[in-house]
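Structure, all two chains, one model.
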Amino acid sequence: MKSPVKMYNLKPIVEQGFTVELPKCMYKLSNIHEKRSTEEHVSSPARNLDIFDQVKQFLKNCQDIPGMAELEAKQHNILEQLAELKKQISSLRQNLSIQSDENSKNTIPVMQCIKPISNANLLPDTLVVNSNPSNPPYSLELLQRLLQKQIGLTVTSYLHSSVSSLPEESSKLKDSLVNFKPLTGVPVINISLIWKNINSNAEFLITHTPISGEVNLLRFLSRSANTNLNYDAEANSFEIDSLLDQSYLLVRSKTKVERAGILQTFNQSLGKAEWLLGKKQAGIADVAVYSAIKQAAVANQLSANLAKWYQRCCVLVAA
Amino acid sequence: MVEEGESKKAAKKEAKKAEKAAKKAEHKATNPSETPTSASEEVDVSKGKYGNLPMIQSDPTAPKLTFTYIKDLNESLQGQNVWVRARLHTSRARGKQCFIILRQREFTVQVLVNVSETVSKAMVKFSSNVSKESIIDVAAKVAKVPSAVAGCSQSDVELVASELWVVSASMPQLPLQIEDASRPEKPGEEDSLNIKVNQDTRLDNRFLDLRTATNQAIFRLEAGVCKLFRDSLTNKGFVEIHTPKIISAASEGGANVFTVSYFKSSAYLAQSPQLYKQMAIAADFDKVYTIGAVFRAEDSNTHRHLTEFTGLDLEMAFQHHYHEVMLTIGNLFTEIFKGLRDQYSKEISLVNQQYPAEPFTFLEPPLVLQYQNARKMLKEHGVEIGEEEDLSTPVEKLLGRIVKAKYDTDFYILDKYPLAVRPFYTMPDPQNPKSSNSYDMFMRGEEILSGAQRIHDPKFLTERAKHHGIDVTKIASYIEAFKYGCPPHAGGGIGLERVVMLYLGLDNVRKTSMFPRDPKRVTP
């Protein structure tokens, strides 16, 4: 049979070859389709239903259609023009020395982690740190001494108008920070320490939004400079992060039980080593924990090992 | 015809007039007979307890009364009889009662005039008819109120009046209502009662406008700034001097001075006491300050310019570095701000009720920024300023916002201005010839003080003046002062009105000048 228009064969949308179990609780009605159920109302496809083949078939059949060759030629032209355009663009790119996507893909495998280029220049020359006078950031004084050979941290202290007078402890810390003289020849970072009535113990500003928390300040300072306090490359970096979080919790803790629990984790981390996490020299975790213990005023509740460690920190500060 | 018509009309008018007169006469005839009868029917029990007081001429025989201040009225005085002399703020009659609100500065109290055995209807009527803003004497019993009186500062008590005398009556028509003048400015709130008093109306009737609690607070605070300025500097060993306001030659550049006729010639009004401060330094006074009027003939109608304002100026000799002076001035400001914060918190909150503003923040010691750093900060925010370029007012405001965001301070010092933008007497920086030993201080992003180390060497001063193209003969007297030896010195001056305006976060300097003078106003 030759019909004027041939259509594609389509798969039936609804499969009809299964039996339907009719419920028995209702009236029985005679099947209105029963008559036709024996004869197929959709002719099943004889061949494999491949659209691509069908199109081919269709085109073959249409060879003799007038205008087809013309259309083919037109398409060919368009393709040629596109190829020309591509060539032009790639030559332009070469002139402008922009690496093509393919090249960059070749140089950096997708899964490789890009290490940050760490040097002291990542730190801004001036840093504004707001700090709560009732929770002085003792970490700064330890940091000043630990970093003194790599970065000179000079601190200028300001009293914000929201604070009427500085408590004794903060005032002591202020003197110790301000009087610290950085070594000559090391890059200097000026820290403006503003004693201010804020919610957290410390906050600092890089862009418009302040970042709060003393440990976050430590994370920023240690990671944005390539010093021996940078812990990015260390295998146990998340243990360090966890210790930093614990020291934040210690400052915020309200009950004795809570504090005891946190001190216990510190003790475990210290073990019998000289510094936390069994290190040979003081790291960023020591700085954070030292400050937290001093702020929470629990120096007298420490275990023997921890107390010795705390003494070592104090010696570092005094040096 | 016409004349006849007119005369007819005239005659009609006459007739009407006569009729009216007759009616009036009739009315008069009946009325006086009415009043005495009613009075005789109902004897005024409180006669002699109210009325207009004879003018107080300090008669030595007059009875002496002790008055209680409204601010002292509280529950502890409950049941006592007190005399109060105050202004009638508002009154409102309701049947046999009359509620009066008395005002004394920012304090208000409610008075109740109630018909009773001792208080007659006539007295209540008289009380309700006393015009607003009159000064009255009230004898009353302090009574506790069951529920707080809304809208009065003394909300826990009221006064039950037994006597009421008018000391000084006010005209019934007020050019502005005190309530309108003290209505809070809340942007964005579209209330039905959004009546505001125009700035010009306020200034035309300043004596009324000044009665609002806000204005009382503003000028008390202004006095506080002066007092703190004096106290702080006196403690630092400064001497207060008084400089002439009529001068023979322009003290600064020469422009913007008012000319006054001076007998057969003319003279000028001082636009800065600077020359005299410096002469005092040359005369070994070491540290001086002066508070006085300063005149600027600038035809600028802005929110921050006045043609006459109060200048607080100081000048100080130093040992090695002009930063000694700059930090002295910076600490002076810190002390003033701290004094205001601690001693004038009530005034500040009163002003904020009408003109809400963020509290003024500052750092101690004050933040000192170098001009170069400020340029860098501005560049980070997309504004480039040339190395020898001055900051324009909008840029100053932007810098103020940047500094506030970074350091959270409304006050800071900008040091080391480019030499090219400073007056000829400014000492150049020894390390950088383009820079100078000069500083500006800012409050809420607006410049309030401009100061510098002055050149104290007459030769160098002449050289610098010539470099600036200034006629040396005109400033001969200025240079003269340094010819016989003068210690190195620096100083600066601030405008009192501007400092108060910026401290309180007000939008117009006219609000902090009691009787402002600008190019368009010389009255009252």
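Chain B touches chain A at residues 337-338, 341-342, 359-365, 367, 405-409 (CB under 8 Å).
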